[in-house]
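Researcher: Structure prediction, please.
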Amino acid sequence: MIPAHDIARRARRGALAFSAAALAAGTAGALMTVPAHADSPSAPSRSAYTLAASHDTSTSSDSAARLRKVVDEARVLKSRKATRGTFSATPGGKSTTGTTSTTGSSGPTATPQIIGGTDATISEAPWMAQLYYLDDQGTADTSDDTIIFCGGTVVSPSKILTAGHCASGMDWASNGFVVTGTDQFWLDAVGDPAGSVISGVTRQWVNPSYNATTTDNDVAVLTLVEPVTTKTLSMTSANDTTSYTAGKTATVYGWGRNSSTTQDQPLQLQKATLPIDTDSTCTSYWGSLFKPGHMVCVGDAATGSDAGTVSPCNGDSGGPLVEGGRIVGIVSWGVEDCVAQGARSVFTKVSTYVPTVNPRLDDASWNEDGLGDLIARTPTGSGYIYYSTGSGLASREYLGDLSGLNLVRQTDLNRDSYEDAVVRTTDGKLYFLDAYSGDSVLVGGGWGVMRSITLPGDLTGDGLPDLFATDSSGAAYVYPGNGKGTFGSRVKIGTGWQTYGAVIYGKGDLTNDGHPDIVARDGSGNLWLYKGTGKASAPWAARVKIGGGWGTYTAFAAVGDLTGDGKADLIGRDSAGKLWLYKGTGSSTAPYAARVLIGTGGWNAYNLFG
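Model: Predicted structure follows.
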């Protein structure tokens, strides 16, 4: 029995019970018994669709938690129905700053809609999120503070997809919070709307190529402190072209400005159906400000007034453009005040950024730095963890007694942004070990017949990690994850996999298309790439040979992204006991760069990696 050990996580989190004895003694139940399973077109003035609200409140107690402090200040703003407006200069610095105000306690007086839109309910858009950021102006007087608002989408239980300009230069962990579960604009609602959930943010990711001057590469992801139970909405695929066909319609959602003549926002969530335009339509209006391939041109030409215009506006930033049940765009920027004649809205083109965003949905790691870490065990059962440094591995730390196991795989199986493990005991039982709660859940028995077990990521397109396994006869199966640590009924997807034995590995995207991939070594030492397709019934494209001579390796480990570039990597141990890192390239024909030595010897001391 191993001692309680939280693997460098927060003290309130439970221990991972790795020992076979611990697993046999206290499971949460057998959930599966067998593995059956602007104004002028020449130089338009533009605006990113953010909205700031003027702020009047008193200082919260210094001893309050960060989230409580921010929420309490926002609550005061809610209760006072403070004036709103003060909408700040936008990316590119071409807009002016204006302030409008409303008085009284009745809330917004403008027609409650996205300009030209209609009411929407949370039941039709359960994945909508409201993002509130307390922008402290650095003075002792809090009356000059502002609340900056953006929209977002729940793309996994603990992940919010939004615009890069909604997060760049901000400290969301200290000064922001997210509201989900309601179609009521939280800032104006009386009390907390039914179903609303307020969440803190633990970390943020902004596309490294985001340009605040041009608003290019405008995408970001916020990670919540705790996962939410609301339904999620998936992004489109990286190879999607159909959704962007000119003339096709898509729906935008948000709580943004409802008129070009006021800064007011609606109480009720809004939606509007807009046509997809050609890139040339936007380049003819916006010129070089519009970046084809990175941006999507959307909507009919604005009329010059609210009448006849259908457009997102300030406050809709970060919200989704939805087509075919997937996110195809993120509200990014447009003409100032949103209705200048001839203007069209600009959205971030999501398909372009799927390969860089997807790794952020699967960036859990044992010490929460977003880098994959290596687990290793000696023949006597002593388990160790090696944290990634970004270019190699740090000194090992004792993990516990891992005797009685013959397989360890790492993944955030329940999508709470904390790394978990799936292990198999020598008697064929498979367990999900929840690192956050410390619980061990019996997935089922009979898994000894499986020659290989891999958790590459989301194979079925629902945003949840799945399991891929091959049995001793060479049959291959996908077990769809349910986001709770266990799996649904298996789907047989092929035969003949016995040629690879147990040497099938993968965690993450190797080919930069947004789908997880695997590699497999045959008996002749050849390494083959199976590129993910995103289809549950046929998850792998035809195999591609990516090299020979891999027979020199006696063990492999695929633990995701060790280097922090968003691409999956591979570790191999050779017969001399040296450890090598194969850094992912994103290429579908040569997915690994030249190997780099990260362990000079002695790695033969381990008989299990994971």
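Model: Confidence is low (pLDDT under 50) at residues 1-17, 24-44, 50-64, 81-113.
Researcher: Thanks, that helps.
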